[in-house]
Amino acid sequence: MSSPLVAIVTGANRGIGRAICVALIQQFSGPLVLYTASRAGVSIDLAGLSIPPTVQVRPAQLSLTDQASITALSMMVANEHKGCDILINNAAIYYFQENITASQLQETLDVNYRGTLNVCQAFLPIMRKNGRIVNVSSLASQLKHFHPRLQARFLKPNLTFTELNVLVDEYSRFPDQHTAAASGWPLLAYFTSKAALNAATRILARENPHLLINCCCPGWVDTTLGAQAGKPPKSVEEGARIPLRLAIGDIGQVSGRYWANETSASAGSGNIQDW
């Protein structure tokens, strides 16, 4: 029997994360060890799902704002399996309002950008050759929401993490989102956090050519997060399609790109797009 594929899904307890886990269990044909990571660290609800004997599902505790939990998870996977094949960073938060507190703004950046990046960096040393990292981003990440001078900085061809962090820190120092918007930033902190994640994905891919590292917009999906903006048109199963393709589907050797459908309601498996 071949060694199992080892996969991690963050934010796995509900919504798109849980749907990704279900799809992996149902669609991956070989032996699989699936770590379902969440803040609570408890088993996810898989009632009614037939789990093949080749699949092991293991709950794992992970908080994106707790470096100790990030390190502990990567060390556990390394000790148990000597490596990782797939990392799907799905966990995120979204305050869908213009008047958030300074702590809520920092939390948005710390979870969606800094925390996700910390997970990537913790797992990079144990990712096996041709392993895949999938960062679940958003339609909100698109640079059309930013002033052209900010777009140019995000898209700098050889952007470094030092430069990206300077950019994010500049945004975080504005006293409120309205003042930031007057300087060319989008009105909601979520948009900046996801644009930063896209830029980080490009840097990670450039620095790790032995891996396939991509980001994607799952579309407007019927989750607690997505429903803040109205009635979403897509099911969680449809929202899982693009992340799943980037994790186990045929994407050639594409790395460092943003994948999405033509519209936020489209239910396809995505294609490469500018952001």
Automatic annotation (TrEMBL):
Keywords: NADP, Oxidoreductase. It comes from the Eukaryota. The keyword Cell membrane does not apply. InterPro entries: NAD(P)-bd_dom_sf (IPR036291), SDR_fam (IPR002347). GO terms for molecular function: oxidoreductase activity. Signal peptide: none annotated. Belongs to the short-chain dehydrogenases/reductases (SDR) family. This is NAD(P)-binding protein. It comes from Penicillium hordei. The lineage of its organism: Eukaryota, Fungi, Dikarya, Ascomycota, Pezizomycotina.
